[in-house]
Write a structure and sequence with these properties.
Oligomer: single chain
Number of strands: 6
Shape: globular
Largest sheet: 6 strands, parallel
Helix content: 40-55%
């Protein structure tokens, strides 16, 4: 993958960041994973990046999408793709249509869990000709082993693994612009560890 991801050529896909499924994250701190997921949503809001949200069986143990997403991206939240049991979101016709409607070939993806909800659509999107960056600290798994195996599978398939701060910096390109100023503020207040004066 040689294409730089920019606000003009990228879309954000957040897969199954639901109140119940978030509790399955055990390989990293769940609050950190939530914070990073919301930081990605805020980045998309600041930069006007089209965002597709999807959920699986909200009326069951998985629960509703994180309510903060409704505040940050109300339009995407309203239009979220509610899957009724399809594991691989990429094989859900409504989800794929929503992604295609963005007109973007660079996909920023995060999912909960990595080992079930992210691995399959990330790999399939690459196979369909998209450039995919999977944001690993906005995703997570119940087990270190399944997380590791999923990361390997994605990398073997051509998915680029990244982290929230790296993704935000790539999209910003220049901290000196008005949007760059908003993003660096987001980084220092919600993503990076505090700097002691």
């Amino acid at each position: 993958m040689t294409t730089t991801f920019t606000p003009e050529n990228s879309a954000l896909l957040l897969i199954d960041h639901q109140v119940g499924t978030m509790q399955l994250i055990k390989n990293i701190n769940v609050e950190q994973a939530k914070r990073m997921s919301l930081a990605l949503a805020k980045t998309a809001s600041i930069l006007g990046i089209p965002t597709v949200l999807t959920s699986s069986q909200e009326d069951r143990l998985q629960g509703p999408l994180l309510p903060e997403l409704q505040d940050i991206l109300p339009d995407a939240f309203e239009k979220r793709v509610k899957r009724e049991g399809i594991v691989n979101a990429w094989t859900d016709a409504n989800f794929k249509a929503a992604v295609e409607a963005t007109g973007r070939k660079n996909l920023i993806m995060a999912g909960v869990t990595t080992d079930v909800c992210l691995v399959f659509p990330a790999i399939d999107a690459v196979a369909d000709g998209y450039n995919v960056q999977a944001v690993m600290d906005a995703s997570g798994s119940p087990f270190e082993l399944s997380e590791d195996m999923s990361r390997r599978r994605m990398q073997d398939a051509g998915v680029v693994l990244t982290a929230t701060n790296t993704m935000i910096a790539e999209l910003a390109q220049n901290w000196g612009t008005p949007d760059g100023q908003k993003l660096i503020q987001l980084l220092f207040t919600e993503v990076l560890p505090p700097i002691q004066a």
